[in-house]
Amino acid sequence: MEIKQTAMAGTLESSDLQIVLSQGTKGIEFDLTSDVAKQFGNDIKATIKSVLDAYDIENASVKVVDKGALTPVIKARAITAAQRALDLKDQPNWEVL
Amino acid sequence: MADQIKDLYLFNPNVKKQWENFLMEKGISVFSDQEVQAIDQTIGLFDDQGQLVGTGSIAGKTIKYIAVSDDGSGASGARFNQVVSALEMDLAEAGHFQIFVFTKPQYQASFEHVGFHTLAKTDYGLILEKGTPNIETYRASLEKKPADAKTVAAIVMNANPFTKGHRYLVEQAAKENDWVYVFVVNQDVSLFTTAERTMLVREGTKDLKNVAVENGGDYMVSYLSFPAYFIKNQDTAIKYQTALDATLFKEQLAKPLGIQKRYLGTEPKSHTTALYNETLKTILPPEVQVVEIPRLTQGSGQDVVSATEVRADIKADQIDQLTNLVPETTFAFIKDKKTELQDRISKGQKINGN
Known about the structure:
By secondary structure, chain A is of the alpha+beta class. Chain A has helices at residues 37-54, 71-85; strands at residues 7-9, 17-23, 28-34, 60-66.
């Protein structure tokens, strides 16, 4: 699916993660800021990628600022951002959840 | 510890006093009306005793007047993140995903920590940016120079409106270089709107094949939006702003785009522009050469061709005199829109600035 509008979810507080999804052209492009990027950068990207895959989002620019979020938090923030970006806020995709 | 974010309404004098006192404690002491009135929204962070422990404001898409108190518990970092986060959320709601911050060098790390990228840094301060569109998407949107272009030059102009003087400057640059970028200042505060100014520059340089006219976006001489609030002295403020602007141009545009020269007109009249030109000459070389072209003079006289004069003539309804000052394309436009332009002037649009 195509991203309709830039969308943001999450905060910059400790144990959270902020994700901004906007239109892209060259697949999924990540821009990750995290203190633990070295240790968990790939895991964070993989978690977000799996959510985007579930929504059939093929092209997107993904800006992530991680403050030590756990996987379920990352997933929840990614789902919210995807729903907002696709303008599906009021139609939760139960299969992804 | 549960700090709470609340809106601060600065039109309430008590709230404003409290806010000013808090910022003054944190070392921000300039509250000129111009700066404060530009604020769209202010938030405060309160601790569980109801004490103000942090604040931040939004003006357009710029974050300003941000400060948090450090009580020694190590919570100031968390508070800072909470304030920035809340401001970003509000900006996102307003549809702004591109955010700018102007701050002092010591806060660079704090902002980079929450995803901001530094655009330019000087001894006085720095500009950071976060979100999309950003400088990369801006650069990608510019017309590509031909592969065989060896010498590339740039001119930044407000062109309010495009005169024979501007045309002369562009012609010189086009003659001496393979490719010329003309950036038109984006800030929409002039008599002629940004769309009109850009259109007139395009029309007026149409015959020059190696000239690309581009909108300067948020990255060129939008120094009206730069805050002067932590510097009191007017000249220092200008110096600070122009140094940032020049550094941004050098680092983010000249380097990636391969621009080797920047053309300027000499500036006998405007103090601000003269200071700006001085700063460019200090900061840009050696990587970018500054070429100063003497201003075009009218016919036989000693008067330089200036857009200020064009605007004065429009006000005085002396349209016929303009043929000496502006190219035909601009003249046709002014003649066509004369009433509308005079209307704008009588409604209070200033015409004697830049």
